[in-house]
Design brief:
The protein has about 230 residues and is α/β, with parallel strands linked by helices. Helix content is about 35%, strand content about 20%. It has nine helices and nine strands. The strands form three sheets. The protein has a four-stranded antiparallel sheet with strand order 7-1-8-9. It has a three-stranded parallel sheet with strand order 4-3-5, with helices on both faces. A two-stranded antiparallel sheet has the order 2-6.
Length: about 230
């Protein structure tokens, strides 16, 4: 049986597991408990009252975090000729077509986001089984299949994140790092919650956002009051 460390024990003692905290209280607690020797990631988890097995109740979308995600985002662009040059000028880390497709086929992923021009999507379509499970497949709904390569690269670099409901009915992901100011973490969290609310499917019935929690990499989760958060 593993033994709880002193640091984690002290972190747990600061939190009431039964309490639903306000946004300011929750963020303050998570930052106070992020005492590891590295800059811990702050993650958000939202439990939705939808049936993830039903196609008409799927929830997905994209949101631009006002303060970024606290890490360098490596962007690859699937493009040729003038659009390839545009991608390089915009700051893309990797630009290519056939060579990039071969790299993906070999499952070499040295990028975090993949953007493609519409004319090359048929080539990428054959790689869907590799890209899809990694949430890397470009999609027009996310703005990652576009001819406006400059804007797409800019958004990806400056904190655009994708969210998608998993099989257990939860949306979760990185929203900040512990070194961010409390206000910045709160702003990013509210941006994601707002995006999730806007993506509510018309087929969803009853309570949409059931539970919300945030945590740091090495710290315990803190529950937020979803009613107050979505008011």
């Amino acid at each position: 049986m593993s033994t709880m460390t002193k640091r984690l024990r002290q972190a747990n003692e600061r939190i009431d597991r039964e309490k639903l905290y306000s946004l300011d209280e929750a963020v303050g607690l998570v930052k106070a408990n992020a005492t590891a020797k590295f800059d811990e990631t702050i993650e958000l988890a939202i439990n939705l009252g939808v049936d993830s097995r039903q196609a008409d109740q799927n929830v997905r979308g994209v949101v631009l975090l006002p303060h970024g995600i606290g890490k360098y985002v490596r962007v690859a662009v699937f493009a040729r000729d003038a659009k390839a040059e545009e991608a390089k000028a915009a700051g893309a880390d990797i630009v290519g077509a056939e060579a990039l497709a071969e790299q993906i086929q070999a499952k070499k992923f040295n990028f975090d986001r993949l953007i493609a021009t519409p004319n090359l999507m048929p080539m990428l379509g054959r790689l869907g089984k590799i890209l899809g499970p990694r949430s890397l497949m470009p999609n027009p709904k996310y703005g990652t299949v576009t001819n406006d390569i400059t804007q797409a690269v800019k958004d990806a670099k400056h904190g655009q994140v994708l969210f998608k409901l998993d099989k257990s009915g939860i949306i979760h992901g990185r929203i900040a790092v512990a070194s961010f100011a409390e206000e910045a973490i709160s702003d990013n969290l509210k941006a994601v919650v707002t995006g999730v609310i806007k993506a509510k499917p018309s087929a969803a019935k009853g309570t949409y956002i059931k539970r919300v929690a945030i945590s740091s990499t090495m710290g315990p989760g803190v529950k937020l009051d979803p009613v107050e958060l979505t008011a």
